[in-house]
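Researcher: Going back to the complex we discussed earlier. I've cleaned up the inputs and rechecked each line, so this should be the final set. Can you rerun the prediction on the complete assembly and write out the structure?
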Amino acid sequence: MHFVIIGGDAAGMSAASRARRNDPAMAITVLEMTEDVSYSACSMPYVIADEEGDMETLIMRAPAVFREKQNIDLRLGHRVEAIDPKNRRVSGKDAGGKPFEISFDKLLIATGSVANMPLIPGHELPHVFVLKSLDDGRRVKAFIEEKRIEKAAIIGAGYIGLEMCEALTERGITVQLIRNRPELLPWLAPELSAAVDTALREKGVLINHGCTTERIETHDSRLDICCREACFDAEMVLMAIGVRPSSFLAKEAGLELGAAGAIAVNRSMQTSHPDIYAAGDCADAYHVVTGEKTWIPMALTANRAGWAVADHITGRPVRMEGVAGTGVFKIFDVEVARTGLTLHEAEKAGFDPVEVVVKTYSRAKTVPGSRPVWVQMVGDRQSGRLLGVSMVGRDNEARRINAAAVALHARMRVVDFSTTDMAYAPPFSPVWDPLLVAANQLLKKI
Amino acid sequence: MHFVIIGGDAAGMSAASRARRNDPAMAITVLEMTEDVSYSACSMPYVIADEEGDMETLIMRAPAVFREKQNIDLRLGHRVEAIDPKNRRVSGKDAGGKPFEISFDKLLIATGSVANMPLIPGHELPHVFVLKSLDDGRRVKAFIEEKRIEKAAIIGAGYIGLEMCEALTERGITVQLIRNRPELLPWLAPELSAAVDTALREKGVLINHGCTTERIETHDSRLDICCREACFDAEMVLMAIGVRPSSFLAKEAGLELGAAGAIAVNRSMQTSHPDIYAAGDCADAYHVVTGEKTWIPMALTANRAGWAVADHITGRPVRMEGVAGTGVFKIFDVEVARTGLTLHEAEKAGFDPVEVVVKTYSRAKTVPGSRPVWVQMVGDRQSGRLLGVSMVGRDNEARRINAAAVALHARMRVVDFSTTDMAYAPPFSPVWDPLLVAANQLLKKI
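Model: Rerun complete. Updated structure for the full complex:
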């Protein structure tokens, strides 16, 4: 059995390692187009924030370990250009431009996602960056250090854009956040989005809402980032307007695409060709709340899906229940967490949803350090089910969100969630955990 | 309808307030034997720790508010001495020693729990304290301040004993912790208990294991706390060896007692007499893991049970699913959290349990501030169910425990819990949350 994997990051290397553990004899080949495998991309903002930070520490396992200790044929600089499902072959070019062709018995496409880059005038300037690959991270870090950047513009307010607001501010760089929408985080209730907005401004981030960047111009070593109404001055631009699935190879090979143009997979991670799997950011997934397909690229999902592929090809039972869309990020001391559906998403999915937004406190009021926490909770009038939760807080409490995520997996009703036995001690929470306070309020509306 | 409540703390006042909200016309009488109602007893260690702390700030709602705003006939200093279920009457004496007798249509017994005090020689000395009521808190705080206490002994290592180790140390008092068991927290795996032990010693707490206190002697203003092998010197003693349900009145009235001698209640919080309810620390509860009765007195349970009683007597549907035994406490920067059953408890309950103990990290290793976290997880070989989790950590992560508590309420299998979509961002967790790491390990053993 020859197991070939296209892509050597989270999903690809998880699958390779687990396949090796499951079957010491299997031939395993990984084709990675860059020179990097198995790194913590999500940690890049934290290394950039740290003057002493070394991007190379983000490499979780060196290529030599995969090759020598795990007997995985890991080929770097190998770009796959075509998949031939019928003849079970992949072909492409290596770093030197030399063509290669490899046969497989089972194939995993783990090509990840690519950062969106709008094709506006100036997007190709050397001062314009994205932050997706480890090489992107190296370039950004080297640029801000070598050029002693004092002012940067970040376009977009996704996880990466916001985390980089913190990272660059920590480096003493003035950050202009440029946002095409009129609000910072449109999927949050206005009170929650405003709390994040305030926290950013407190730290000196300049936020410009409602500006769609139309062009980027250079003047000496400086840039003008121009929207219709105004231009903003900076020395570099980070384009952080999201990612899209890297599903081109699969599409060309005639494999079915699913949610958001990601590769459609079943509950065993098989594509429309049973010997070809997809996992990680390039694949879609089931949503545990709707039961429908969705595309929410996350590191945990990629790792888990990689394992599932390895288990399935080695004959172990696999059934991927799906994702709840759980996510968390921190900007300075503000944490934002979510799981499940927003009110709008719930409406679109055909529920009859209702929402509450509550402000409560992170600890007993009698204990020092208690901070406000906002909880936004959505339930379904018809079934009584809990559909989603978002939280904004400033006291290390975003870890509470997992309680709601587990409830979504269990398809709990709000009433059942509201009677769960959550932990209480004054330094941790009020007697009623913020999630319980929200659930009690939501019950009155359902 | 006359609703009479014995006891004016968490369960009693929650019931009174909710009954009033549910029914503006109902006659509600609360008989409280002390002069205090509705206070946050769990916060007392934090007020004692703070030189400026004022015990009176722990009163959540003043008696006047209950009386004037909520029209509740709240009678302080009223000690009930007998319940006559047949004639629906309670009788007792007021603060002046004057007898009273009151008829009820519905009665709630919310008499709470009492601190255990071993009847050893010296237990009645004025330097020997418990910390249960607000008056206990006032006495302890006044004593350490007026006598300028420099050395204290704490007997027992429950939540209160350990929290008071921190509180007194914060006040510059040297603490001797005296423990009859050979280990600090016998319900934790040795690695987890040792981590807590180390954290206490780092802060200067002197821990003496395996010492059963046999007598307390005075020498001038100093005390000798004597075990068989040794005597320890201190100026005050805090006896923190647990609590027992205050179920004497119910027993005398012929009501059925249940787990641990607490008042037996059904899923509507009714005792063996359908018009008499019990709630809070004096009542037992169903355990969501075993389905059997248990007695785990907690503030949230008391508040929730008080609401349930009010709902039931006003004709609303009530079904108390039960408790998971979720608890959390903090000593200095160490947090300990648990939910569900330990291995030993699971064996006793008739499961075929298996356990893992894993040490992992609180954040991505690449991010500053990552600290070790231990997770102890118990599952059932036969059903595959998750039965319990304990955690010890030092990075504000005990809030993770609620995810496991929710899973216990949902009667989730370990395999299902292991595939839940938990939040990941480098400052919050490794890609695999500590609970998922433990679940993955436990799966291999089930």
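Model: Worth noting: Chain B touches chain A through 69 residues (CB under 8 Å).
Researcher: Good, that matches what I expected from the previous run.
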